[in-house]
Write a structure and sequence with these properties.
β4 and β5 form a beta hairpin. Helices cover 43% and strands 16% of the residues. Strands 1-6-5-4-7-3-2-8-9 form a 9-stranded mixed sheet, with helices on one face. The protein has a 5-stranded mixed sheet with strand order 10-11-14-12-13, sandwiched between helices. The protein contains 30 helices and 22 strands. It is α+β, with helices and mostly antiparallel strands.
Length: 824
């Protein structure tokens, strides 16, 4: 037995090696015999075939159709087992990495683009590697088969050998799921693009059976197939059309993924994710066309009979002319126009990625076209500013930023709740997401643009990409470039220049186009700059240079802090400002009287966010900010200050005691008043009157919790005003006079209201006003209101109305009868 065992085994092995060779020889001879010319098929017949493939005989077409319709692994294929737990792998892919099924097309197109990049790189040293004709076209083609529920993605890239199929399509499984997850979370640098790694396995989000047909120049055409059930199979392809070079992926869609068989859905996905891929992407799309076809005999006979009937009613001369025309028409075949569905390759990515080019080579028209495509804004307005730059160093990326001409209507409505950004992140021209608030802070979320990085990993989720260390570097550079772009917009605006520079600016050719651009920007996005000062401490000083506001000397024009400082009086150490509801109200404020009289300039802040802004902007260029409605205002020294304080010491002390119940901390002599008897100011670090009004108007405000921020109030009096002088004399005569106390309280309440505060007891204030009016009209304080006399008017009115209604009803029939008689 042992003698025969070894020879028999050797004999069986020889048979196994010989049989495949014989099969290949038979197939080769069959292909060699089929050299007969074949008529080129029509477009309609070629819908299910591989695009631009070689024409084959009917047997090959049948085998290909059978291949496309099958959803089981071929029995004669060489089978392999995944080395990792496929169930765990698919759980990671579907549940952890990809929450959106749409990205499968993005991943496949990016892989195809990488394969095309590789063959193009090799062709630089070996031009023959590309081949001739259609093979030399580096493009991506997408085709649908709605009947068989198949999507095909074809590229003419470098292709893969059998070993490449085994190695590249098993990358994740071979590395082990646990090691894969650990690597993703630690380094985040998983560059599997072009190797069908994570990206390729996203196809199982929409497909339950996948075929990968690939042809490399150094190997035969092979088919990789798998159902992601723990195994995949590879076999030599003898039934599909030869690809010559490249890869075709066929996705047999799941029942719940039939939406991807819609042409418009695929167009939308390509436009969203792969619009700027470096190679043309074509879709085998359908459209309706008009076609002339032979008319039916019955229709032509009906038309001729109709023409004969109409010809009888015409003159003889016209009939002879028509007969001659009929003879000519009879010689031509009768046709009719019908609607038919035709198919053609439609280019989906016609917008070029201009950020890859040198900024000096891109024209203004190209930037405008790119902005309109990016922002979906096709109005005639151009973006206010743009910045195109290439960042180099540890992190390399390219970016284009635009300032839109108008702010969205809901820009600030959901400012802190919205995660959507107008900045799109690309990795190697492949769209990743527009929900990265890590790229730009929220106060710059009005900017439009793209960022394209080659250093970020492509095939990972948005959540994992957020942890990548490169994002912080990209964010820092983007903020600096964005602020430089806005500052440049201000520098180039003639309205922003000083009078000296205006002459030079006006001579430039584009001065009219740039005139008033920064004022337009400020009106649209000024609130964002203010929010940036509040939120971004690092760039606070740079943002402060972009601030604009009106002042008491600006004549309605916007002023910057630098321009304000250049106009400051000698000896002025502080930047004066005041906050309020409107410019008109502030211009009449008593707090400005003394400042305007002494020729000081005061900034007018009328936006509610300005109150929060000034809590963070404490100084600028070594100049402190001073709210003129608060304590601490210094506007020069008066030699008579000490004398005035001493002469009014008794009055201030008495008045403070009289207002003990009004939460008044002190009564002082004021240096900020000119024509007003007194005002109420707050302490330096407490709320101003305007801030109190804003906080009280909040929907969820709590008055009990706001009391500690109101602080102490100080009554400042004008010692030169006649009312204050007369009050001092009355207090000196009789400090216990009740009428004087009531007058002092009335003056305080009036000053409180004029200073912008809300009265705690409006009824008490009104009663004091009426008492004062009585005195001025010489009415006795004890005079009372006359009692109302009760008159029974209600009964008499009701009686008269009933009488009138009854008389109307009696008169109505008579009038009606009269009208009828008149008509008769």
């Amino acid at each position: 037995m042992r003698k025969w065992t070894i020879p028999s085994i050797l004999f069986l092995l020889c048979l196994l090696f010989l049989l495949p060779d014989q099969g290949r020889k038979i197939h080769a001879s069959a292909e060699g015999d089929s050299d007969f010319p074949v008529d080129p098929p029509k477009v309609e017949e070629k819908i299910g075939a591989v695009p631009n493939g070689l024409t084959t005989d009917s047997d090959v077409a049948n085998r290909e159709a059978e291949s496309m319709s099958r959803r089981t692994l071929r029995s004669n294929a060489e089978k392999f087992e995944f080395q990792a737990e496929v169930s765990r792998l698919m759980d990671i892919i579907i549940n952890s990495l990809y929450s959106n099924k749409d990205i499968f097309l993005r991943e496949l197109i990016s892989n195809a683009s990488d394969a095309l990049d590789k063959i193009r790189f090799l062709s630089l040293t070996d031009k023959e590697i590309l081949g001739e004709g259609d093979n030399a076209k580096l493009e991506i083609q997408i085709k649908l088969d709605k009947e068989k529920k198949i999507i095909s993605i074809r590229d003419r890239g470098i292709g893969m050998t059998k070993e490449d199929l085994i190695k590249n399509l098993g990358t994740i499984a071979k590395s082990g799921t646990s090691a894969f997850v650990e690597k993703m979370q630690t380094s985040g640098d998983l560059n599997l693009i072009g190797q069908f790694g994570v990206g390729f396995y996203s196809v199982y989000l929409v497909a339950d059976y996948v075929e990968v047909i690939s042809k490399h120049n150094d190997d035969k055409q092979h088919v990789w197939e798998s159902k992601a059930d723990g195994a995949f199979a590879i076999s030599e392809d003898t039934w599909n059309e030869p690809l010559d070079r490249g890869t075709e992926i066929r996705l047999h869609l799941r029942d719940e993924a039939q939406e991807y068989l819609d042409e418009y859905k695929l167009k939308e996905l390509v436009k969203k994710y792969s619009e700027f891929i470096n190679f043309p992407i074509y879709l085998w799309a359908s459209k309706e066309v008009d076609e002339e076809v032979p008319a039916d005999e019955e229709e032509s006979s009906d038309e001729s009979s109709d023409e004969e009937d109409t010809s009888d009613s015409k003159s003889d001369e016209e009939g002879e002319e028509e007969d001659a025309e009929k003879e000519k028409d009879e010689k031509k075949p009768k046709t009719k126009t019908v609607k038919k569905t035709a198919y053609e390759w439609e280019l989906l990515n016609d917008v070029k990625a201009i950020w890859l080019r040198n900024p000096k080579e891109v024209t203004e028209e190209e930037y405008t076209k790119f902005y309109r495509s990016l922002a979906k804004d096709f109005s005639d307005e151009k973006p206010l500013a743009r910045s195109h730059f290439i960042a180099e160093g540890d992190v390399e990326f390219k970016a284009v930023l635009f300032v839109p001409p108008k702010a969205p209507h809901d820009l600030y409505e959901s400012y802190y709740n919205s995660n959507k950004s107008n900045l799109k992140l690309y990795v190697r021209r492949v769209f990743i997401s527009d929900e990265f608030d890590e790229l730009l802070p929220k106060y710059l979320n009005f900017l439009m643009g793209i960022v394209d990085s080659d250093t970020l990993p492509l095939n990972v989720s948005r959540e994992m990409l957020q942890q990548h260390s490169s994002l912080k570097t990209i964010k820092k550079k983007l903020i600096r470039k964005a602020l430089d772009m806005i500052r440049k917009l201000a520098d180039e605006d003639p309205d922003e220049s000083n009078d000296k520079d205006n002459k030079d600016v006006e001579e430039s050719s584009d001065s009219n186009e740039k005139k008033g651009q920064y004022a337009k920007f400020w009106n649209e996005f000024g609130k964002s700059i203010k929010l940036g000062i509040i939120e971004d401490a690092t760039n606070r000083n740079r943002l402060a240079k972009l601030l604009r506001f009106e002042t008491t000397k600006s004549d309605g024009k916007l002023t910057s802090l630098d321009q304000y400082i250049s106009r400051m009086k000698s000896g002025q150490k502080d930047i004066f400002y005041i906050t309020g509801a409107s410019k008109e109200q502030l211009e009449k404020s008593p707090f400005l009287e003394g400042l305007i009289k002494k020729n000081y300039e005061v900034i007018l802040f009328t936006d509610p966010v300005d109150e929060y802004l000034m809590q963070y902007l404490m100084d600028y260029e070594d100049k402190k900010f001073q709210n003129v409605s608060k304590e601490g205002l210094k506007i020069g020294k008066d030699s008579k200050d000490k004398e005035l304080k001493e002469s009014f010491k008794e009055l201030t002390k008495w008045w403070k005691g009289a207002l003990a119940s009004e939460n008044i901390d002190d009564v002082k002599i004021s240096n900020r008043l000119a024509d007003t008897p007194c005002v109420v100011v707050t302490s330096k670090y407490s709320w101003s009157a305007n801030m109190e009004r804003i906080m009280q108007s909040q929907t969820l405000s709590d008055a009990s919790k706001q009391a500690y921020m109101r602080g102490k109030r100080v009554l400042e009096i004008n010692p030169r005003h006649p009312i204050i002088k007369q009050l001092r004399e009355l207090v000196v005569k009789d400090p216990e006079d009740e009428s004087v106390k009531q007058t002092a309280k009335l003056i305080y309440q009036t000053a409180l209201m004029e200073s912008g505060f809300m009265l705690n007891d409006p009824k008490d204030f009104a009663s004091r006003i009426y008492s004062s009016v009585k005195t001025s009209l010489n009415i006795s304080p004890d005079a009372t209101v006359e009692e109302e006399v009760d008159v029974e008017e209600a009964e008499t009115e009701s009686g008269t109305t009933e009488a009138e209604s009854s008389s109307n009803t009696e008169d109505a029939p008579k009038d009606y009868d009269d009208d009828v008689n008149d008509e008769l």
